[in-house]
Write a structure and sequence with these properties.
The complex is a heterodimer.
Chain A: H1 10-28, H2 36-52, E1 59-61, E2 66-68, H3 70-98, H4 104-123, H5 127-145, H6 152-183, H7 188-194, H8 199-216, H9 223-231, H10 234-259, H11 264-286, H12 292-311, H13 316-347, H14 358-361, H15 363-377, H16 383-397, H17 401-427, H18 441-459, H19 461-470
Helix pairs in contact in A: 1-2, 1-4, 2-3, 3-4, 3-10, 3-13, 3-18, 4-5, 4-10, 5-6, 5-10, 6-8, 6-9, 8-10, 9-12, 10-12, 10-13, 11-12, 11-17, 12-13, 12-16, 12-17, 13-15, 13-16, 13-18, 13-19, 15-17, 15-18, 16-17, 16-18
Chain B: H1 6-19, H2 24-55, E1 61-69, E2 74-80, H3 82-101, H4 109-128, H5 132-153, H6 158-185, H7 198-203, H8 208-223, H9 234-241, H10 244-254, H11 256-269, H12 271-298, H13 302-321, H14 326-357, H15 368-371, H16 373-386, H17 393-406, H18 411-439, H19 456-474, H20 477-491
Antiparallel strand pairs in B: 1-2
Helix pairs in contact in B: 1-2, 1-4, 2-3, 2-4, 3-4, 3-10, 3-14, 3-19, 4-5, 5-6, 6-8, 6-9, 8-11, 8-12, 9-10, 9-13, 10-14, 11-12, 11-13, 12-13, 12-18, 13-14, 13-18, 14-16, 14-17, 14-19, 14-20, 16-18, 17-19
Classes of the chains: A mainly alpha, B mainly alpha.
Amino acid sequence: MNFSSLLLMRQEIALLAIILVLVIAEIFIPQNRKTSIVHLAIFLFGIHTIVGFFEIEESNLFGGMFRTNHLIHFFKNVLNIGVLILLLQSADWIKEKIMNQNKGSEFFILLFSSLLGIYFMISAGDFLMFYLGLELSTLPIAALAAYETTKRISSESGIKLILSSAFASGITLFGISMLYATTGSIYFSEVAQMLTSADLTLLGVVLLFAGISFKISLVPFHFWTADVYEGAPISVASYLSVISKGAAVFILMILLFTVLQSLVHFWENIIYVIAIATMFIGNLFALRQENMKRFLAFSSIAQAGFILLGLIGGSQLGTATVVYFVLVYIFSNLAAFGVVQAISLQTNKENIKDYEGLYRTNPNLSLVLMLALFSLAGIPPVAGFFGKFFLFTAAASKGFYFLVFLAVVNVTISLYYYLLVVRAMFLRKGDNPIPFFRNKIYMRIGLVITVLGILLLGIYSPLYDYIYELSSAFN
Amino acid sequence: MDILSLFIVMPALTVLVLIFTKNLKQARIVALAGSLVQLGMAINLLFSYIKEREINEAIMVFTKDVIWFKNFNIHYNIGVDGISVALLLLTAIVVLAGVFISWKMEDLPKEFFISLLVLSIGVYGFFISIDLFTMFVFFEIAVIPMYLLIGIWGTGPREFSAMKLTLMLMGASAVLLVGILGIYFNSNADGGALTFNILEIAKVNIPVEAQRLFFPITFIGFAVIGALFPFHTWSPDGHASAPTAVSMLHAGVLMKLGGYGVFRVAIFLLPEGALHWSWFFIILSAFGVIYGAFAAIKQTDLKYINAYSSVSHLGLVLFALLMLNKTAWNGAILQSLSHGFMTALFFALIGMIYGRTHTRDVTKLGGLLKVIPFISAVYVVAGLASLGLPGFSGFVAEMNIFVGAFEKDDIFYRIATVVAVSAIVVTAVYILRVVGIMLMGPVKNEAYLNLERVRWYEKLGILLLLLPIIAIGVAPLWLSEMILKSLDPFLKGVL
């Protein structure tokens, strides 16, 4: 092997370099100028995101442990954009609340480490690399969840996250070992060929699926979600609900569509049941939430249920719709979390009731949140509608009309609670509305990008066609 | 820009300009200008359509086809036939009248007119769509502004009504989505590519089992917004809480999407399903006709009376569509138009009466003919049109419907028709009762003696709606000929 083949890992190497630069900067930048680390991190990551769009050829490394193709590369870029938006939205929070506790740069270092883990996870060509990536992507996030050490609820959230993900990792590993026992290999391509429908294999598949379901917070593995989201800093909650969940969906899709393709009739049933349970539980619990973060937690559980409709077909159409939906979902959910972040930073208010009368004092923020919620609810002409419609089309193309019917029932339920927030902002006048405030520049850029995404991603059809072409990689 | 896309672009431009307006005066001028242009466009479309029809035999004219999502074969595909032209004209008139009636909208005027125009974009887009996907998109765009319109500017239990209306309509559209996907995945039954194009699908022989499965889903999906019994309950509550202009648009235009969708999608694309299921939905709609009429008798709130009257009249539209013959269909379209103008007029008048007397309770009003003669006289005229007096549009429509319904010489159809016809008598009861109590007799309340006279913008709004009612009533032939010519393609599947 020569060094030029390492260019396949360009994204990973660049991100590692950024992490190292930040470590060095942390050492050498004097105490009174620490805020410049925020600018540095955003600047470097912005460059990284842009450079990421240059093409990478499709190939393998390390004997098939690490692989990349255009779809994986595209998905890494999607995640980059998400993280960049997230950084812009949390910059003010770090500057105002975290810097004086003397730990600003750790936030970026931990976040980027987790992203690095995700890169490795979705580029994995064997179960070892997959597992390493999974662990690397989870552990730093547990530290970040407990980041606001002055708040007890934050530490609680960190502990809950680390315990449940350790448990989930254990289960995943157990499942992988069973697959290894029956197929004699940990390489995806070999496992795919050797796969039988022996009981032990099926048990392995179930356990593997359960482990990843923790990360996606599918029912019945969702219990940690609301508590962790509520306690963790908003940036971390939004990272969990968008980036980490999106990546887990993606790797689940790769595993199901390539490694476990021959067992499609087996895992189709699992997904069928779990999709229904996840949609209903997520939506029904979201109905009565009063805290915005818990509300978004349950909404994100329900969204995961919808995503499963794209997975169930196991077709190229399914791959394309899932990737497209995750992309749209990243923008929609980040817009929602961004507004919650902005309001929480200014006023410390996080309840739906506090949002009453928001439109009359802060019309722009309310409009952003309304667009985001409409996109999550799937109302045209914003992007979320197209995402959901295509997911349903993927399921219907395989004849799952009843599942689609249950999904549309859930869309209606979800519309109710999304409208509850709209009601608070627009319909109510409120006794004590949040006074008018102006956002800082980073937050504004972050929100504007998400709004543009929500408005344009759906209508701009070549994007979907492009994703569809890339999706042939896994089918 | 082609003549039809303008119907989407023009309101969208108006919305863009509205964003930059500062107060009520600017907002209403912009909205007025925008909706005047729309009316001009609709009238222009009517004449160009009649001219085009002489030389063009295609089902849809002025078509334009742009590919949108290649992989799903989704197109931005638009075109009109006689039915859609008539409904576009109805929409343009009601929107303009709505702007006139909302001349004094003090609270958040800019946002009000924006929501109103977004709604009209959805309605226009729906009526010109040939592609099922874009049709569905526009359908939802038309519904969602209703939540804000009723929720922010409504009265009474506005939050409840807005939520109920939105959830029921969006729930229906969600069911509709299953139907549309079912049609889409059966559109290659003859070996072609999957398509959302209505005209293409109509040529395909969709398997009979699939038609029977997806017809009721599609039918109900559309018919909820057409107030099909027992899914009509969103409508009276929504009307009662909505501000005047919104009630007008809601009853005058939005509910017409139901009948149009049922006709254009469910019956046109799934004729075997229609033949199989029509008996069931005829029972429901005939019951809705009679139920709406009796419910209207019991009400004392003016808005509820007219809301239930709408349920009754629109039940008749669905009833006629299900008769599956040309005469009844012609009547159904005429009834849609006539009801659109009439109900919009009713709600405009109710809004004016309520704005002056601050009550909508019939029993508390009396002798209004003496104090606000113009409004009261028009109310009488609208009432007479509503109960189907010859010379007004309602008569022409109902005549066609019942003649069409009697063409079927089958005991089931005869009974259903007799039930539906008897609703006319009940209609006369509730209309004349209101006229008698509210307009005649002594003035019940001293405060009513010096009510404000009717304003110029109110007069304009009223006249805009009154003229078509009389025009259709006196000279119905040109309109029904235009509609009849467009009905032939629909007939092919149900013979």
